[in-house]
Amino acid sequence: MRGKVNAAKKAAGMVEDCSVIGIGSGTTIEIFLEELGRRIKEEELTVYGVPSSYQSHLAALKNGVKIVDLFQYPELDICFDGADQVDENFNCIKGGGAALTREKIVATASKKVYIIVDSSKIVERLNMPVPIEVLPFACGFVEKKLAEIGKPVIRTGSGKLGPVVTDNGNFIIDCDFGEIKKPEELEREIDEIPGVVESGIFCSKLIDGVIAGYESKAEILKGKIRHQTQRGKT
């Protein structure tokens, strides 16, 4: 937890007055918004934000961020988001909170993208199941196609019966592909299946830096990450 807090504080310190930021989703982003809220109050900053989910929308409002959208600002200054896993080349898996489609849109619309993570999220190669947002109408077909290359499971809700429904009204399939050696190729293969809205693979070409938090510090990592960063070294 300490690493996550340190990374979120580091990220909040990067936000400039009158900037327009893309806001990801998840617990790390909630901490980032709390830290940013302190700066907004203490330094009397004006910060505009485009949230990627209702969760981050509400958290941003609570912490003094002025909510705008991509109609008003089709290009954002900088985006901050968390990740479920980051490999040594900055490829990421995201979507544990089912906001991956809007997160990828907001990230792609931003001039700079920084991923905020506890250092334990950094791995040599991606290997966790990939969240995939799917149109409900196509869910059975997409599940069948994914079964040809991985092990798909429709995500079910903990607070309701049946599948998880995203902010876009779609379903989530979590698909285990084992160790992912070529993220860009896999992302393309998934996206080519009709009915897939977006995958949770965020390739390194989208990422400008990773803000890694450790027990007593946080660092902005750029370029290839040596695997030993998991143990707090660089």
Provide a descriptive summary of the structure in words.
With 234 residues, the chain is α/β, with parallel strands linked by helices. The protein has helices at residues 2-12, 27-43, 54-62, 100-108, 139-146, 183-191; strands at residues 20-23, 48-51, 66-67, 78-81, 85-87, 92-93, 113-118, 122-123, 130-134, 151-154, 171-176, 196-199, 201-202, 209-213, 218-221. Helix 2 (27-43) packs parallel to helix 3 (54-62). The strands form 3 sheets. The protein has a 7-stranded mixed β-sheet. A 4-stranded mixed β-sheet has the order 8-5-6-13, with helices on one face. The longest helix has 17 residues, at 27-43. The chain contains 6 helices and 15 strands.
Largest sheet: 7 strands, mixed
State the shape.
Answer: globular
CATH class of the largest domain: Alpha Beta
Q: What is the ordering of alpha helices and beta strands? A: HEHEHEEEEHEEEHEEHEEEE
> What Rg do the Cα atoms give?
17 Å
Mean pLDDT over the full residue set:
94
Strand content: 15-25%
Question: Count of DSSP helices?
Answer: 6
For the largest sheet, list the strands in their spatial order. Answer: 3-2-1-4-7-14-15
Category from helices, strands and their pairing = alpha/beta
The tally of strands reads 15
